[in-house]
Design brief:
Helix 6 (344-374) packs parallel to helix 8 (424-442) and helix 7 runs antiparallel to helix 13. Strand 16 and strand 17 form a beta hairpin. It is globular and about 85 Å long. The protein has four domains: 28-184, Sandwich (Immunoglobulin-like); 187-293, Immunoglobulin-like (Sandwich); 300-394 and 409-506, no CATH class; 596-698, 3-Layer(aba) Sandwich (Glutaredoxin), CATH 3.40.30.10. The chain is built from 20 helices and 24 strands. Helices cover 41% and strands 22% of the residues.
Length: 702
């Protein structure tokens, strides 16, 4: 008890001294830079006038949302997204990870989020690791999410400028730093252990009995996912070991990689304390998927594991027939024909190489997806085409494939010179590359049966995630793999001949159409200025590769390298343009634009609502819109039933749309929802949309 009183008294004394010395009356905080987004403000404050070489300085990134809105902590809880700070620093400066203030629980219906009501500050330490320039320009790219009933992503790019010097304190900003530091959790001197099981977790904090005297409330905020169910109450008890906290945990939740978190204690005298805990993490065998079949066998959408696996295999097979895979179907068809002249062993090696190319690509994409989601990013399947720079790279790749097929230069795909009988090694390399192309083009779209399988997988432990996506990759590769093993199918293929060279050249045009589609997507995301740079980069790179093949002289080679470097420079120049991409966003004044607030308003009025989520890079979405949604018959059907229509555009990142996809067990678009009058739960329509499916959904009107 004496130790507890001494600690609290010491903290009060430090707080009073800091108020007296660091917050003079009348001082006004002066931000280094400040910006105002649509629903919040962001300002950056510097604690010292400048930064001394070999020393550190502190920044406060201050976020102030509108009244009634909130922002999020490092772990946002059931929904939301943590702030992202991306620093571009000059040589000699390094930025440490931001320090977050103590969060509080924000109930939202059946969910609980972790964050801050009102203004909050992130403290960032800048370290001058050595000699620094007299003037140090710094660029900050920031993303954060503010929510009330609806959620609005916020973005800002700020340019700061620091100077080298002795680092004198800025008294005007002392108050904001004092308040930010007082919001930080205290370092914990207690040892702790966190045991994670199948249906619950147990936190033990080894504290003395007198330190818990007067304890009235306990709440633990984990920094990692998978520790507990956020909305569940936390039961605690004092034992001979110290403080024990029982935390409910959903069966099949992902295993946490860290036990760190913040422990908030409330006492009967009205005081509170928050402590930064780093417990020992103990994962029990029962928390794994193999020891908890009930937790893995079904997910929150009631899908058994065996059914999800079957859906993944069949969905991958059907994906071969989806519009998003059409651009590479001709390439695969040509490979089928050229395979007829090869030995059985070579054909089978090609089949497995093609399968391996798809599988490796899927595993890389899924691994990145899981890492980004674990970091709080609201993304889903096909996320890579939400990044303009990846779209630019893919467009460049498709142009090079087309030029190679057309004979301008040769990229070994394993199908050139088919009449000459390539070696097995060359054929396998080409087959592997075709598999990579198939995966890159196919992943933005969702075939029937794929959506529930992917939605299931992304809520499961890593071993289940990679198993489901491995079956999806196998389904996509299955036709080519079956052909490589079937003598009957091989005999049905036309005989190779000179005509194949002309066919190969003709196949360049579907690939160019694919490149044109990707350039269109890039333009929608990044705008016309960045698109011009992309086209210039493609032309320059293609010319450099062609020029490389015209001779072997050192001067010619030097020119080629210079041209390639110019293309790379143009690519890098697109980065700031892409980040400020204004396109692919539905205008705020559009009455048909989806937002949670717009949907709530229509449902509260008792109106039937049809909501569809699409993206410019989703070919299946565009085919459905052209063949079904944009037809006069469909418009007449909606008009007769007085159905209101909302469109959610997911071409660029949108956390609100990502949350809806997750709510209905989907990881990508398209998604079609119909809300009958008075109903808050939607009817989910199939990914391949038909007028009949819409009529059946509308028949659910009460």
């Amino acid at each position: 008890m004496v130790l507890n009183v001494f600690r609290r008294g010491t903290l009060c004394l430090i707080w009073l001294v800091s108020l007296c010395l660091c917050a003079p009356v009348g001082a006004t905080a002066t931000p280094l830079v400040e910006t105002e987004a649509s629903h919040s403000k962001l300002a950056v404050y510097l604690e010292t006038d400048n930064i001394a070489p070999g020393r550190s300085a502190w920044l406060a990134v201050h976020i102030e949302p509108r009244d009634g809105w909130h922002t999020y902590w490092l772990n946002p809880g059931d929904s939301g997204a943590a702030p992202i700070l991306d620093w571009t620093l000059p040589a000699g400066l390094q930025a440490a990870a931001p320090l977050y203030g103590t969060p509080h629980a924000i109930p939202t219906g059946p969910l609980v989020n972790y964050g801050y009501d009102g203004p909050s500050s992130l403290l960032v330490r800048l370290d001058a690791t050595g000699d620094v320039a007299s003037a140090m320009p710094v660029h900050l790219y920031a993303e954060w999410l503010v929510c009330a009933t609806e959620c609005v992503p916020q973005f800002a790019e700020l340019d700061l400028s620091f100077t080298a010097g002795a680092g004198a304190m800025d008294p005007a900003n002392a108050g904001i730093f004092s308040k930010a530091r007082s919001a930080l959790p205290e370092p914990s001197y207690w040892d702790a252990r966190l045991e994670v099981g199948a249906g619950q977790s147990g936190l033990t904090v080894f504290m003395a009995t007198d330190e818990a005297d007067g304890l009235e409330s306990v709440q633990f905020f984990p920094a990692a996912e998978g520790v507990l169910t956020y909305a569940a109450p936390q039961a605690w008890i004092l034992t001979g070991e110290g403080l024990g906290v029982r935390l409910e945990r959903a069966p099949g939740a992902p295993q946490p990689g860290s036990a760190a978190g913040v422990l908030v204690l409330g006492f009967r005298d009205g005081t509170h304390g928050s402590y930064d805990l780093s417990p020992e993490l103990v994962l029990s065998a029962a928390s794994t998927s193999t020891a908890d079949p009930a937790g893995v066998g079904t997910d929150s959408f009631g899908l058994p594991l065996w059914q999800a696996a079957l859906f993944a295999l069949l969905g991958g097979l059907i994906l071969n027939l989806m519009p998003c895979v059409f651009p590479i179907l001709s390439l695969k068809a040509f490979a089928f024909i050229s395979a007829n002249q090869r030995s059985v062993a070579s054909r089978r090696a090609d089949g497995w190489a093609y399968t391996g190319g798809i599988w490796v690509s899927f595993m890389v994409i899924v691994g990145i997806l899981m890492l980004l989601r674990a970091g709080g990013a609201a993304i889903g399947w096909g996320f890579q085409l939400q990044e303009p720079l990846f779209v630019a790279f893919l467009a460049l790749l498709m142009v090079f494939v087309a030029l190679s097929l057309g004979g301008m230069f040769h990229i070994r795909l394993g199908i050139e010179n088919a009449g000459a009988g390539l070696a097995a090694e060359e054929g396998s390399k080409g087959a592997f590359f075709k598999g990579v192309l198939a995966a890159l083009v196919a992943t933005p779209c969702t075939a029937p049966l794929m959506a529930p399988a992917i939605g299931f997988a992304l809520t499961q432990p890593a071993v289940v995630v990679f198993t489901i996506f491995s079956l999806l990759a196998l389904g996509l590769a299955l036709p080519f793999l079956a052909l490589s093993y079937s003598e009957t199918l091989a005999r049905m293929m036309p005989r190779p001949g000179a005509w194949m060279e002309k066919v190969k050249e003709a196949l360049a045009f579907p690939m160019l159409l694919t490149a044109a589609w990707l350039v269109y997507i890039f333009d929608q995301q990044a705008g016309s200025a960045a698109t011009f740079l992309l086209i210039a980069m493609i032309i320059t790179a293609a010319f450099a590769v062609w020029l490389w093949q015209q001779g072997t002289g050192p001067v010619l080679r030097l020119i080629c390298v210079a041209l390639l470097l110019a293309a790379v420079f143009g690519f890098v120049r697109m980065l700031p343009l892409a980040r400020t991409s204004p396109a692919a966003q539905v205008e705020a004044g559009d009455d048909n634009a989806y937002s949670p607030a717009a949907l709530d308003r229509l449902l509260a009025a008792g109106e039937p609502v049809f909501v569809y989520f699409t993206a410019d890079w989703c070919i299946t979405c565009k085919v459905n819109e052209k063949l079904v949604l944009d037809r006069d018959e469909t418009a007449a059907l909606f008009s007769r039933n007085r159905v209101r229509i909302l469109k959610g555009d997911w071409t660029n990142k949108n956390a609100a749309i990502a949350n809806v996809l997750a709510e209905y067990g989907r990881a990508g678009v398209p998604l079609y929802l119909y809300y009958a009058p008075g109903q808050r739960k939607a009817v989910v329509l199939p990914e391949v949309l038909t007028l009949g499916a819409i009529e059946d959904a509308l028949a659910t009107n009460p």
